[in-house]
Amino acid sequence: RALNAVLPDSLQVYAAEWVPPDFHPLIHIKSKTYEYKVYSGEIMQPVERFDKMHVPDALDIDGMLQAAKVFVGQHDFIHYSSMKSATLANSKVSTIKTIESIAVEPVENGLVFTVKGRGFLYHQVRHIVGAILAAGRKRVDVSYLSEMLNPQGEFEHRSPRWRMCPAEGLCLKEIELMPLPHPTELIHPELPHDEDGRVYTPPKEGG
């Protein structure tokens, strides 16, 4: 209660537990699961505009299910992100990512997309959902989406023919952490740590 008292209404803590001192919330992750909601009815209630994308078009569900299968596995998602120029300029950033699963579930007056993977590029999930919706609208075919993964030749610098979905509709539903040792133990005892137990990189000699 004391912690929630100083947090904004949009953020609340339900539980807390101790972790090892060298734990990092972006590194020690086993998987992330995102959910994206689409409202497909003709008229969407105004209150729903904050957490759904409105797509009143006729959609080919079977085509979308086939398109979703293309993304499962390890691929180069450079065309399915919004960081192309930054990525090309920074060779340290890898665009190779692994999608564990994608589900496209029809619900009343809409669809729910569930995407699970260990890590994602900037706007990757919104691009993937946009590409699957483009297949559902029959604006792109599955072979095109596949060729835009692991791009080679003419596809290496091609701009995508789908639109990235808006932020409304996207929600980070779950983060699964890696198995962690007891809070009094280090996750990486083989690495150098500072006095607080955090991993650090020692300065180079003469630097």
How many helices in DSSP terms? 5
Radius of gyration: 21 Å
Q: Overall mean pLDDT score?
A: 89
Poorly predicted ranges (pLDDT <50, ≥5 residues)? none
Instruction: Note the beta-strand portion.
Output: 15-25%
Structural class: alpha+beta
Which descriptor suits the 3D outline? globular
How widely separated are the two ends?
Answer: 47 Å
What order do the SSEs take from the amino end to the carboxyl end, as H and E? HEEHEHEEHHE
Secondary structure: helix percent:
10-25%
Q: What's the β-strand tally?
A: 6
Largest sheet: 6 strands, mixed
Brief digest:
With 207 residues, the chain is α+β, with helices and mostly antiparallel strands.
Description:
This protein has five helices and six strands; from the N terminus they run H-E-E-H-E-H-E-E-H-H-E. The protein starts with a helix and ends in a 30-residue tail after the last strand. The mean pLDDT is 89. With 207 residues, the protein is α+β, with helices and mostly antiparallel strands. Strands 1, 2, 3, 4, 5 and 6 form a six-stranded mixed beta sheet that branches. Helix 2 runs antiparallel to helix 4.
